[in-house]
């Protein structure tokens, strides 16, 4: 395999991985944030205390986190086909990526929100803030550094998930690793793909750390 061919394959694979991870991150951020906030609000002593709702949400999140991603890929194939019409390709891979990452991020959101000092919430309540204002202007704002850090961790996890999606034709760098590194025994190309993945993770981690430091010193 020539270098031009390698660069062409890597360019295409990186674009596909970026697409999968980017779209999945968007849906994960929305879904995970919503569930994480609800886990805190519906807990005992929360602004919307409802133990049955909290228990159900917690059970769903725990089940989602306990299923290995490679098993999840296969288990929700009918759901994936229902949504996008196929189980192969980058668009199809976005579905299990999102389903697998939402519970993961939801727990990180919950942890970050629980670190907000109760005194801050009590002060906002005493000043007459509504529940919506407390969530938006107190909980989320005070927990912002932790939320950004959690999202950064989730994006990195999604890159690893996307590589596994290549095992069932999900496209991206993982698919290249399976087709060329495993099936064709091109070890050199496999090493290059690993290096590209490591570089991507390092860049994303640096960017995430930068945003965390920025929001921590507001």
How do the helices and strands line up, and which of them pair or pack?
Elements: H1 3-41, H2 51-66, H3 69-75, H4 77-84, H5 90-114, H6 118-126, H7 131-142, H8 144-165, H9 172-182, H10 187-216
Number of strands: 0
Report the structural category.
Answer: mainly alpha
- In N-to-C order, the SSE pattern is HHHHHHHHHH
* Gyration radius, in Å: 20 Å
* Shape verdict: elongated
Determine the CATH topology. Answer: MetI-like fold
The helix content, as a percent range, equals over 70%
Distance between the termini: 51 Å
What's the level 1 CATH class? Answer: Mainly Alpha
Residue-averaged pLDDT, rounded?
90
Count of alpha and pi helical runs: 10
Query: Low-confidence parts lasting 5 or more residues at pLDDT below 50?
Result: none
Which percent range describes the beta-strand content?
under 5%
Give a short account of the largest sheet. Answer: none
CATH architecture: Orthogonal Bundle
Domain count, please report it: 1
Instruction: Give the full name of the CATH homologous superfamily.
Output: MetI-like
Provide a short characterization of the protein structure:
This protein is mostly helical and 218 residues long. It has helices at residues 3-41, 51-66, 69-75, 77-84, 90-114, 118-126, 131-142, 144-165, 172-182, 187-216. The protein has a single domain (3-216), classed as MetI-like fold, CATH 1.10.3720.10.
């Amino acid at each position: 395999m020539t270098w031009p061919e390698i660069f062409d394959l890597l360019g295409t694979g990186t674009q596909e991985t970026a697409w999968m991870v980017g779209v999945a991150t968007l849906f994960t951020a929305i879904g995970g944030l919503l569930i994480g906030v609800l886990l805190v609000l519906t807990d005992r002593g929360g602004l919307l205390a409802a133990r049955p709702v909290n228990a159900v949400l917690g059970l769903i999140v725990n089940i989602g986190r306990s299923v290995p991603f490679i098993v999840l890929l296969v288990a929700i194939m009918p759901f994936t086909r229902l949504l996008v019409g196929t189980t192969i390709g980058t668009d199809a891979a976005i579905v299990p990526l999102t389903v697998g990452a939402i519970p993961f991020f939801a727990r990180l959101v919950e942890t970050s929100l629980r670190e907000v000092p109760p005194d801050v919430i009590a002060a906002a309540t005493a000043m007459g803030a509504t529940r919506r204002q407390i969530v938006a202007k107190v909980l989320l704002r005070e927990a912002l550094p932790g939320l950004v850090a959690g999202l950064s961790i989730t994006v990195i996890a999604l890159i690893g998930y996307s590589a596994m999606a290549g095992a069932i034709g999900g496209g991206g760098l993982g698919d290249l690793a399976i087709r060329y590194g495993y099936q064709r025994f091109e070890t050199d190309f496999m090493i290059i793909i690993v290096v590209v993945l490591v570089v991507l993770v390092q860049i994303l981690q640096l960017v995430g750390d930068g945003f965390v430091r920025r929001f921590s010193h507001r």
